[in-house]
Each structure stands twice: as structure tokens, then as C-alpha cells.
Amino acid sequence: MSVLAIDDAAYGENPAEPHADIVRDELLLAGGTEIRRLRGRVLAVFQRPTRSIQCAMAIGERLKPSANGVRAAIHVGECEARGEDFSGIAIEVTSRLLDHARPGEIIASRTVRDLIVGSGFCFEEQGEMKASGLPGALQFFSVSGAPAGS
139 Cβ partners below 8 Å, 6+ apart? Predict the structure, then answer.
């Protein structure tokens, strides 16, 4: 499962806000499912990491006029469905990765990069982080570009 975490300080708790509509629309178009929203952060799951990246890019473009800039993080891994929510190490790692993203940036774990080789996305190494449950440090990369054929 691919997990996307999005953060926009202007995107609040009110599901009637225009930002909430934009995020919901783009998640729907990309085949994602919103699983959690809290203090401007949204977590969503996808079947494919390329769809997560495409969705993050689309949300970033649509919310570009936002003064604060949207940050996004993507990781892939095992998730367990619990009703309408999900849990698992992939959820936790993605949430932690988001803390490393700068405004306007999409970052992805090395796992994502390795899975979508040849997709047309460009990855630039940004650093690494440690997270409980992971053996060693996890590299992360900023993501840019568009997949071939889009």
C-alpha cells in the first residue's frame, strides 16, 4: 500500500473549506482514500505509489496560491485496515517523513524511488531519518517531474 501525507497550514479542520474540497477531489481522481485528517494534515492510501505522487503534485498545483505551500511525503509498506482507518509502520513512517518536507516539496522514501524506477519522476537525495521499527536509517528524496506518457 502507498501512503501519502499532505500538510497545508491553510487546510484546516473544517471539511467545508475550499482546500478540503480540492484535496478530496484530487484524491478521488487519483484513486486514493482519505483515512485521517488532523490540524491541516491529511493521510491517504493508494494502491500504487505513482498515483500518490501524481495526486500530491496535482494538489500542490491547485493550492499553489496558498501562501504557506503544501508539503507532501510518500512511503510504501504494509498497512492493516481497521474499519475505515489504517494502521501500520508505513503510516507512521510517512507521517515522520512529512516532518522533513519543506513548503512546496514532495518527498518520498528510498523504497518508493526503488519501486518506480523508469516512471519518469526525478528523485534528488535530501537526507535520511531513523524511525522505530525500521532497521537503520531510511533515505528520502525530493520528487519532481511527470511520468512518461502522462
Answer: 109, 110, 125, 127, 128
